[in-house]
């Protein structure tokens, strides 16, 4: 059994291959194409991880999305892309999306003119919003993918919170087409929360009962938490406060939980039954 596991450990990385797509591709999930190298010390460099001798250190991701949970390690992601258009005269622009706004540190390495990886962007939740290549709640990186050539992309991620990397490939036109739907969904969610906030504010001002005050504070803190976790808050509310952008998510969900408990205690009158409830 031990020898079988050793063989599998050596064989699985060799099965990784470049993702091939053509000009008709609009969107691809790259979860199963990602190879991952965990760097517990955080001292690995792009020169060391991109060396041919280091290729065996990268492991495939068995699940559809890389999720390391809570870890202090740095993680290097590697993905190979091959653009094979049926018509070589058609030029498409491509975007790589990391759809996880709370990621603290991201270093994206794209190939230079000679195909060698070089750092293109350093961004993340712990940096000002202006550090992003595109002003979006998720992280977007523009790709230069010549027809018929395989390009290897590297990304180094590290976070004090949960570490996960849902990676997607978009054609630029498809990404722009998808934005109105996302904006409508966000608008619906935050519109409902804002409506609840205003409605309960008027009720509280009318009846002056503490139940409505607790519920009002719960809705406000939960709404801000949703904006923080979705990357909307750092885009519109505190773009130049990376420390608060990183700390606001756990703080706001804790605040929402506190006010939800206080609302439940007040509404149910548990203090009349026991002072410990």
Automatic annotation (TrEMBL):
<feature type="domain" description="7TM-DISM receptor extracellular">
    <location>
        <begin position="184"/>
        <end position="276"/>
    </location>
</feature>
<keyword id="KW-0808">Transferase</keyword>
<protein>
    <submittedName>
        <fullName>Sensor histidine kinase</fullName>
    </submittedName>
</protein>
<feature type="signal peptide">
    <location>
        <begin position="1"/>
        <end position="18"/>
    </location>
</feature>
<keyword id="KW-1133">Transmembrane helix</keyword>
<feature type="transmembrane region" description="Helical">
    <location>
        <begin position="183"/>
        <end position="205"/>
    </location>
</feature>
<dbReference type="InterPro" id="IPR011623">
    <property type="entry name" value="7TMR_DISM_rcpt_extracell_dom1"/>
</dbReference>
<feature type="transmembrane region" description="Helical">
    <location>
        <begin position="212"/>
        <end position="238"/>
    </location>
</feature>
<feature type="domain" description="7TM-DISM receptor extracellular">
    <location>
        <begin position="32"/>
        <end position="171"/>
    </location>
</feature>
<keyword id="KW-0812">Transmembrane</keyword>
<keyword id="KW-0732">Signal</keyword>
<keyword id="KW-0472">Membrane</keyword>
<dbReference type="GO" id="GO:0016301">
    <property type="term" value="F:kinase activity"/>
</dbReference>
<feature type="transmembrane region" description="Helical">
    <location>
        <begin position="250"/>
        <end position="268"/>
    </location>
</feature>
<dbReference type="InterPro" id="IPR011622">
    <property type="entry name" value="7TMR_DISM_rcpt_extracell_dom2"/>
</dbReference>
<dbReference type="Pfam" id="PF07695">
    <property type="entry name" value="7TMR-DISM_7TM"/>
</dbReference>
<dbReference type="Pfam" id="PF07696">
    <property type="entry name" value="7TMR-DISMED2"/>
</dbReference>
<keyword id="KW-0418">Kinase</keyword>
């Amino acid at each position: 059994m031990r020898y079988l596991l050793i063989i599998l450990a050596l064989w699985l990385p060799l099965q990784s291959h470049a993702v091939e797509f053509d000009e008709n591709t609009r969107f691809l999930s790259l979860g199963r194409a990602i190879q991952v190298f965990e760097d517990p010390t955080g001292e690995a460099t792009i020169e060391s991880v991109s060396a041919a001798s280091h290729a065996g250190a990268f492991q495939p991701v068995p699940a559809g999305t890389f999720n390391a949970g809570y870890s202090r390690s740095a993680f290097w992601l590697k993905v190979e892309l091959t653009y094979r258009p049926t018509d070589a005269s058609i030029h498409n622009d491509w975007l790589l999306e990391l759809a996880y706004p709370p990621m603290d540190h991201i270093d994206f390495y794209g190939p230079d003119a000679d195909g060698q990886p070089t750092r293109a962007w350093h961004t993340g939740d712990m940096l000002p919003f202006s550090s992003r290549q595109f002003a979006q709640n998720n992280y977007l990186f523009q790709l230069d993918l010549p027809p018929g050539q395989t390009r290897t992309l590297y990304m180094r991620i590290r976070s004090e919170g949960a570490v996960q990397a849902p990676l997607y490939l978009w054609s630029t036109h498809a990404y722009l087409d998808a934005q109105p739907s996302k904006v409508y969904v966000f608008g619906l969610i935050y519109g409902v929360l804002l409506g609840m906030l205003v409605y309960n504010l008027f009720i509280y001002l009318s009846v002056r009962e503490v139940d409505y005050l607790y519920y009002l504070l719960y809705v406000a803190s939960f709404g801000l938490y949703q904006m923080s976790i979705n990357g909307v808050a750092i885009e519109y509310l505190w773009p130049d406060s990376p420390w608060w952008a990183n700390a606001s998510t756990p703080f706001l969900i804790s605040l929402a939980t506190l006010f939800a408990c206080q609302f439940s205690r007040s509404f149910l009158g548990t203090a009349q039954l026991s002072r410990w409830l």
